[in-house]
Design goal:
six-stranded mixed sheet, globular, Rossmann fold, alpha/beta, 20 strands, DNA binding, single chain, 4 domains
């Protein structure tokens, strides 16, 4: 495999932001499939601009193979409003080159497959781009890239505004596509499906890992474990040095000066604390027995019928995922539940204790004229987090807005930072019902992991519309779909069942339809388990995972206490007995998990 792009000791920075990349050396092979991950603002987009030679490095050198053809899907698109879909996708309106006469591409099965796979059939080739939504324009631009051949395809957040079926199709298409691929995405499932190499942009450098998201996560944990062990040895040595320095009189001799210099060197070499995002569970108001009760609801979005005489209930503590193709009406349904729209007919009853918060896809509701801290204080000056009462500034810091960013105007924030601020303001209101419309858009993978950790233990009701398969399978327990037939359809088999019913599952055999009156088969379930038993088994798996995690933490703490009691033999005996009991309890929990997982092969 030959490299088509090389970066040699490249550095790049911008004014007040400072250096984003320093002394970076890497290459892109002609068949590489690379996923790029990192925190918002870490330098991912800068790296892409350097690789595509849209910008030159401050130091070092970026070289391309001769006649290299690169196509790029940026986060921000500029398409002429008067141009039609035909002119953008197949003509010269965006990329400056035509796909040829209409009869040529019309007879090309590959082009037709791309247009169909991205769900563009309903848009119409003669539709003007200017009247379309941001998601529709993005699909048009993506189609324009996919119908053309290139040596390197660069995609910046390609799954934004794609539904689950379109994401599955895109993953299958990119796996079979010739040429190199470089993709920045927060979609963990997509990374695992498509990428064979993962680049992590952090600490002004780029680290390469073999494999997709799962392999990168395991490798990063191992790297952090090694760093933690190294840091623990450093701290032990540091404590010994400081203890020695405090002994007093010997410090006046010539020998301690060497010790003082050694201790100062250790302190100077300690790395700075990382700027991490820590999301903790917000205090929630108590929910009553009723949350949402829909009775014979008719709901329209303009001329389109979304719900047709639907009766549906959402109870306290339920965790629901809404699936459906773009335009199916997921946002319209969420807006009705949030009280921002009314049904044409029927009744939508809301519980008296419900305090709903709606996270929309748009960012226009953020006050662009305020600074970050002012935008938080506009919602709440003080917030209860767990058992702590916190100021708005302390709360903002939990979400990654450090002192230097607290006074940044909202209008100057990046897309990911605005999304994070939007979520912060939402949770600062201490709701007990969360209505989330594509919550993962523009968030980096670390913030997503923290968000999922928050939602995993959040005690209120959650209704989320998302194309992010990883998030849906992590934080929700029930899946409902809008198939365009005016109904809200319960899917016991989750996303796999949705893909089968939508007819879009790549390389999957069609499942036999359930007979009338029978429950639909559950994807991945063990033989003989009913849908209800599968749900209970998955809940028990999650409980056992949390239990093993807590026992592992207690075991680690006991090891520390054993080390501290090295000379106290009586205490050592007591702690050792506690440790044996704890290890036995953890082993039993792990064995229960394994036995249960065998009954659920997809667990």
């Amino acid at each position: 495999m030959a490299n088509i792009i090389n970066l040699d000791r490249v550095s790049k920075g911008y004014g007040a932001v400072g250096a984003l990349l320093t002394d970076v050396s890497l290459g892109v092979g002609d068949s590489d499939r690379i996923g790029v991950v990192g925190l918002n603002g870490a330098g991912k987009s800068t790296l892409l601009r350097l690789l595509s030679r849209q910008e030159e490095p401050d130091e070092g050198r970026a070289t391309h193979r001769r006649d290299l053809r690169v196509l790029w899907l940026p986060q921000t698109l500029e398409l002429a409003g008067e141009a039609t879909v035909r002119e953008v996708v197949l003509g010269t309106a965006w990329l400056g080159e035509s796909m040829g006469a209409e009869h040529e591409w019309a007879g090309d099965a590959g082009v037709r497959t791309i247009l169909s796979g991205l769900g563009m059939g309903h848009l119409g080739l003669d539709s003007a781009v200017g009247s379309m939504s941001g998601g529709e324009r993005r699909r048009v631009a993506l189609a324009a890239l996919l119908v053309r051949a290139c040596d390197l395809l660069i995609l910046d957040e390609p799954t934004n505004h794609l539904d689950v079926a379109a994401v599955a199709w895109l993953a299958a298409h990119l796996r079979s596509r010739a040429g190199a691929l470089l993709v920045v995405t927060h979609d963990r499932w997509f990374l695992d499906e498509v990428c064979t190499v993962t680049w992590e942009v952090a600490d002004r450098t780029v680290r390469a890992y073999e494999g997709g998201y799962a392999a990168w996560t395991l490798a990063r944990v191992e790297r952090q474990r090694v760093e933690a062990a190294t840091e623990a040895r450093r701290q032990n040595l540091l404590r010994k040095e400081i203890a020695w320095l405090r002994r007093g009189p010997p410090a006046r001799t010539s020998k301690p000066k060497f010790r003082i210099d050694a201790a100062n060197a250790l302190i100077a070499d300690v790395p700075p604390v990382r700027d991490t995002v820590s999301l903790q569970r917000m205090a929630t108001a108590r929910l009553g027995r009723q949350v949402y009760d829909l009775a014979d609801v008719v709901l329209d979005a303009g001329p389109k019928r979304i719900l047709d005489r639907v009766t549906w209930s959402v109870g306290p503590g339920e965790r629901i995922a809404l699936l459906g193709a773009n335009g199916a009406g997921k946002t319209t349904l969420l807006r009705m539940l949030a009280g921002l729209g009314r049904p044409r007919d029927g009744r939508c009853a809301v519980g008296q204790t419900v305090r709903a918060a709606f996270l929309s896809q748009e960012l226009h509701e953020l006050p662009a004229d305020l600074r970050v801290l002012e935008a938080v204080e506009e919602v709440a000056r003080r917030v209860t987090v767990g058992d702590r009462d916190m100021s708005a500034a302390q709360l903002a810091e939990m979400f990654g807005f450090t002192d230097r960013r607290l006074w940044t105007p909202v209008g100057d924030l990046s897309g990911g930072e605005r999304r994070r601020l939007q979520l912060l303001r939402l949770l600062a209101g201490e709701p007990n019902v969360l209505l989330l419309d594509e919550p993962t858009n523009d968030l980096d993978t670390d913030t997503l992991a923290a968000l999922e950790d928050l939602l995993d233990s959040w005690p209120g009701t959650i209704v989320v519309a998302s194309h992010d398969r990883y998030l849906i399978e992590r934080v929700t327990e029930q899946v409902y779909a809008l198939f365009g037939d005016g109904a809200v359809t319960h899917l016991p088999g989750g996303i796999d069942e949705y893909l089968r019913r939508a007819g879009a599952a790549p390389d999957r055999p069609a499942a036999p339809a359930a007979a009338p009156g029978e429950a639909a088969p559950v994807a991945g379930a063990g033989a003989g388990l009913s849908p209800a038993e599968v749900r209970e088994a998955r809940k028990e798996l999650a409980r056992l995972e949390r239990q093993v995690g807590k026992l592992t933490q207690r075991e680690s703490a006991l090891h520390d206490r054993l080390a501290d009691a090295a000379t106290d033999f009586a205490r050592l005996g007591t702690l050792d007995a506690q440790l044996k009991e704890l290890v036995a309890e953890r082993t039993a929990a792990e064995e229960q998990w394994m036995a249960l997982a065998e009954r659920l092969p997809d667990a």
